[in-house]
Design brief:
By secondary structure, chain A is of the alpha/beta class. Chain A folds into two domains: 220 residues, Rossmann fold, CATH 3.40.50; 66 residues, Alpha-Beta Plaits (2-Layer Sandwich). Chain A is built from eleven helices and 15 strands. Chain B has one domain. In chain B, α1 crosses α2. Classes of the chains: A alpha/beta, B mainly alpha.
């Protein structure tokens, strides 16, 4: 029998009444990996994280965290995991420092250790200026940082972050990304859920795509994008204008999608910047005017269109 | 990192949760009001509005009669806030956070009830002080007065666990608040809290006599005013013990299974 991965799940099933939240999920996360669990609302991401963090019991299947069974060794599992749930769960009437000290004490640290750990995390999470204010005065970004700090008080081996940047403004999101990048470089195993491909791409070594309670694809961001078709070059002649001459000029460059109604031509490209100059040269040579020209990265929608639009069975893009 | 050994853990955990709730108690405006303005209003309102009309046998001043009742009233209303707080912790994900920690399973609820007891001690002292200013006196000595405080705190612990369980079951803070008041109001009024049970219609007396609030208020009254206490006190303690024996295990079990949705 092979060694268990730091996070491992086999055939996890969870139903809530008539709703099947997880329909048989398998997962392997090696130590030190950062895995992005990507999927739309209702895909089962949060349910999976809750089972792994011992908050829910699966109806079928098994899971291990740090080699410990989440169902039969839940108390031991809690010593090795940190969880930051979907909402920033901090006590708004305690200060940032008081929140962290309380979590430290409840994690089994002695009073002095809980104090110094709180001070340390306040520095790391850039909360020094606000540490002695009650958390309800914090901005959304600060509250989230405090919440993630709280999940790291006991120096967990495995960290679960459930949609850590949902509800944050772009600046808050960027700040948290930078922080998480720094933290994950220190060897903690991180499983984060997200609805944003960009976030998974930025933070994760490997992406697990979930839909309707199943894992529908796993792979690196590059592998996934290759599977989805990579970038797209979108050219528009404007609504009502005829995109046919444009399509004819670019026909040999790839599998064009022409939308006559919107006056748009979409060209899937593997090396966007290189092909961009070729396209521009041809347009200039043929004297074809365009209203808009843009290189677009695939979005979560594109990933899902290509993955769920094809087959509901598991697609392993890595193989 | 230095870690606390396991036998001491339960006390450390309860202490940390108690400290959290005591901090909230002095920072959350509604909680401050529940612990200060409301108990004082109860003493003054019931003494001056009902005192002229209600003349229980064997009592010269209505404040002597009603103060032990308002102890229980204020403690019950205060405890209803525990239901709100537990439902709120559930809704905001705090309970998920606590449940994912390697902490004692019962500490979140136990720490809350300990903090409630500290608040109740303050509320009892405040009400006694205000009562004293308008004529209330202990007639059975210091020992009996201390016993009255102890009994009032004990019923408070039972109320806190009941409302904690209610909060876990109802899950929604607003519903927990309304549900708490709807539960407290009939139980308080159909009891000996404000008027002697003998003045009620017969069918209501049967319920009022069985009501643990009547039994506790009668015991408190005996301890404050004098007279035979043993039967009342033992009956009240039996009720409190019975309520705790049922609600603590059920609430802790419920806590272990519950999760935010």
């Amino acid at each position: 029998m092979s060694e268990r991965a730091v996070v491992e799940a086999e055939g996890l099933v969870k139903r809530f009444g008539s709703v099947t939240a997880l329909a048989g999920v398998d997962l392997r996360v090696p130590a030190g990996d950062v895995v992005g669990l990507l999927g739309p609302n209702g895909a089962g991401k949060t349910t999976l994280v809750r089972i792994l963090a011992t908050l829910l019991r699966p109806d079928a299947g098994r899971a291990w965290v740090g080699g410990l069974d989440v169902a039969t060794e839940a108390a031991e599992v809690r010593r090795v995991v940190g969880l930051s749930g979907q909402f920033a769960a901090v006590d708004g009437y305690l200060t940032g420092r008081e929140n962290l000290r309380m979590i430290g004490r409840l994690s089994g640290l002695r009073a002095a250790a809980a104090r110094s750990r709180a001070d340390e995390l306040i520095d790391v999470f850039e909360l020094a200026g606000a540490a002695d204010r009650t958390a309800r005065t914090y901005s959304g970004g600060m509250r989230r940082r405090l919440d993630v700090a709280a999940s790291m008080v006991a120096m967990p081996k495995v960290l679960f972050l459930d949609e850590p940047t949902t509800g944050l403004d772009p600046r808050g999101r960027l700040g948290l990304w930078e922080l998480l990048t720094r933290l994950t470089s220190q060897g903690v195993t991180l499983l984060l859920t997200t609805q944003y491909l960009e976030e998974a791409d930025r933070l994760a070594d490997r992406i697990v795509v979930m839909d309707a309670g199943r894992v529908i694809a796993t792979g690196t961001a590059d592998e996934l994008k290759a599977r989805v078709g990579g970038d797209r070059l979108e050219l528009s002649v404007g609504p009502g204008a005829d995109p046919a001459p444009l399509a004819a000029a670019l026909a040999d460059l790839g599998a064009l999608v022409v939308d006559a109604e919107l006056g748009r031509v979409v060209l899937p490209v593997s090396d966007g910047p290189a092909i961009l100059s070729e396209v521009v040269a041809r347009l200039a040579g043929a004297g074809l005017p365009v209203a808009d020209l843009a290189l677009r990265r695939p979005t979560l929608d594109d990933v899902f269109l290509s993955l769920t639009g094809t087959a509901p069975s598991v697609v392993d893009v890595a193989s | 990192m230095t870690v606390v050994s396991s036998p001491a853990r339960v006390w450390v955990d309860i202490g940390a949760i108690t400290a959290r709730n005591l901090r909230r108690l002095v920072r959350v405006p509604t909680l401050i009001a529940f612990a200060t303005v409301q108990p004082v209003l109860f003493v003054l309102l019931f003494t001056y509005t009902w005192g002229g009309a209600v003349h229980p046998p064997g009592v010269t001043h209505y404040v002597d009669y009603v103060l032990p009742g308002t102890f229980v009233l204020a403690i019950a209303f205060g405890a209803s806030q525990t239901g709100v707080a537990v439902a709120d912790d559930l809704a905001t994900g705090m309970i998920d956070r606590f449940r994912a920690l390697p902490m004692t399973r019962s500490a979140v609820l136990a720490g809350r009830t300990v903090a409630d007891a500290v608040r109740n001690l303050f509320v009892l002292a405040l009400m006694t002080g205000v009562g004293h200013l308008i004529g209330f006196r202990f007639h059975a000595g210091y020992g009996a007065a201390l016993a009255a405080f102890g009994l009032a705190l004990a019923i408070g612990v039972a109320f806190s666990w009941i409302f904690a369980l209610l909060g876990l079951l109802v899950r929604d803070p607003e519903s927990a608040g309304i549900g708490g008041l709807l539960a407290v109001i009939p139980l308080i009024f159909v009891s000996s809290t404000f008027v002697p049970v003998a003045t009620m219609p017969g069918w209501l007396q049967a319920f009022a006599r069985f009501n643990p609030i009547t039994i506790t208020v009668d015991a408190l009254r005996a301890l404050c005013l004098g007279g035979p206490t043993a039967t009342h006190v033992w009956q009240a303690l039996a009720w409190i013990t019975g309520l705790l024996a049922v609600t603590i295990p059920v609430a802790v079990l419920r806590y272990r299974r519950t999760t935010a949705t």
